[in-house]
Every structure is written in structure tokens, then in C-alpha cells.
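WARN no homologs supplied; continuing
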Amino acid sequence: MGKYITNCMNCHFTCHYPCRIPRDEDKHGCAAINSSTGRCKVCPRQCEWSVHYNQKYKFEYTTKKERRTYEELKQKYERASGELMTTEKLLEKLNEEYEEVKHILEELIKKSSQSLQRLQAIALKPSPLSTPEYIDLLILSEEQELKPGYQQRIRSLKEVRKVAS
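OK structure emitted
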């Protein structure tokens, strides 16, 4: 029995590991695939078996939490700005940093969506995901995986989706 990794290439999601099916053309027999419909029971969009492939990697989504004290943040911004920071100024700087990271995330999601659309066009496959659809897919993935911090990630993704619509 092999240890193959079955990934959905539409959803960028690991649907089955370890899988016993070594050949991509036989993926309709994978445990993740509904034998009567030919659709995946695991991936967010329940895609058909033919877009599932053996890969050498698994999709794993993780969250990294950092805990910093008020004093550490205050010192960081005081060193950077060369001025003493009040609580209000510190909160203002943190908010600016948050907005900057949020903007970068929006740009990355937009570029990712454009890249996916381009790849779909090159591959002559129909119906690439729009940016809001891609964000919905990420939200659905978070709702299914329920990894620590998923609720905050879902809230953030919903905010980004509003901007992308």
C-alpha cells in the first residue's frame, strides 16, 4: 500500500493522505472520491476526480502567533521614529502597520487570482475563479479545517472580500 498524496488542483487542497492510488488516471477509485458521482467528498468545491493528482507535497495552512508586550512595541517605534511614544501614538502606528499589511494582502490575493486566471487560460480550462470566488474558497477551507485562529482569519478574509467585490 503506497503513501500517495491526493491534491485537488482547483482548490489547492490536500484531499487524501495517505492514498493507495498510485496513478492519476485511476483517482476515481480514491477514498476521497464519491464512487457514484465521481466528485470529491473532501475538497471545498467538491471537484470532479479528474482534477485530483498525486503530488509530492501536502497543502497545510498554519497560523503563526506573536505575542509582544506594550513596552516592546513602544521601544520598537521609538527607535524607528526617534521620538517618545504615547499610548495614542503607539496605537496609531500599529493601526497604520495593520492597514499596510492588509493592503499588501489584498494585492497578493489580486495577483494570485490573476495568476490563476492566466494559468486557466493557458491550460484551456473553463471557468477560472474570480477574486471574490477565490476568497470564498479560502473561507470555506478555513471553516472546514477549524485550525486555531480560524475565526479571526475568516473575519479578515471577509473584510478583504468586501474590498475585492
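Helices lie at 70-81, 87-122, 131-145, 150-164.
OK
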